[in-house]
Structures are given as C-alpha cells and as structure tokens.
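Budget justification aside, the reviewers requested a transparent look at the raw inputs and outputs of the sequence design task funded under Objective 1. We therefore reproduce one unedited record. The lines immediately below are the structure tokens for a 108-residue chain.
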C-alpha cells in the first residue's frame, strides 16, 4: 500500500488521479517479496486529469482507452493475435502516453 500511496500523492501533486492500477509481486530465492512487472504505467493503470474529474462521469484518460474503444467496434474472437491497429489509433494512444509523461515527469 505504501507504493500506491506514494504514487497517488506524487500524481495528485501533478494534477493526475490514479483511477486504478495493478501491481504484480513474486518471491525471490530468499522468499523476499519483490515487484515483478511494470507498475504505474499507462498500460497497467488508468490516469485521469484531476481538473476534469466529475463523480459519475468518465473523464478523458491518459491510457490505452483509444485501443480498447477501437477493438470493441470490431467483430473478432478476442484471441491472439489481435487485429492490426490503424495509424490514427496508434497516434492518439501515443499522444495520450506522451501527455501523461509530460504531466508526471517533465513538469517536476
């Protein structure tokens, strides 16, 4: 919980709400608990702009939502490999990731 609490505070100071995230842990050879996967990225979290948040509404997000929304419009079996993504979906998603980076890292 300390990892999440520190990240939440850091993001909040930069105008970002961490709407949800996931952490994956494992045990090393000495049975120490270790973080074993990416954490707090747009792939594993949903980041919302705090200034656009309204309870009960879905604010814009800095994550892969463009990809999710696009894939929901397709008729595919949701098995790997997934369908190719059009350039505009890739570009919109990359722009959201860059915006999250700017807000979280470059504006320190």
């Amino acid at each position: 919980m300390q990892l999440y609490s520190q990240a939440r505070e850091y993001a909040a100071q930069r105008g970002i709400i961490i709407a949800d995230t996931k952490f994956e842990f494992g045990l090393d050879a000495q049975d120490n608990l270790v973080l074993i996967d990416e954490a707090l990225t747009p792939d594993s979290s949903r980041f919302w702009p705090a200034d656009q948040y309204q309870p009960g509404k879905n604010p814009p997000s800095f994550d892969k939502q463009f990809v999710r929304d696009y894939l929901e419009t397709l008729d595919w079996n949701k098995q790997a490999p997934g369908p190719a993504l059009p350039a505009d979906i890739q570009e919109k998603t990359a722009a959201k990731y860059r915006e999250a980076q700017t807000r979280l890292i470059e504006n320190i």
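The chain has a mean pLDDT of 91. The first helix runs from residue 2 to 12. Computational costs for records of this kind are itemized in the attached budget.
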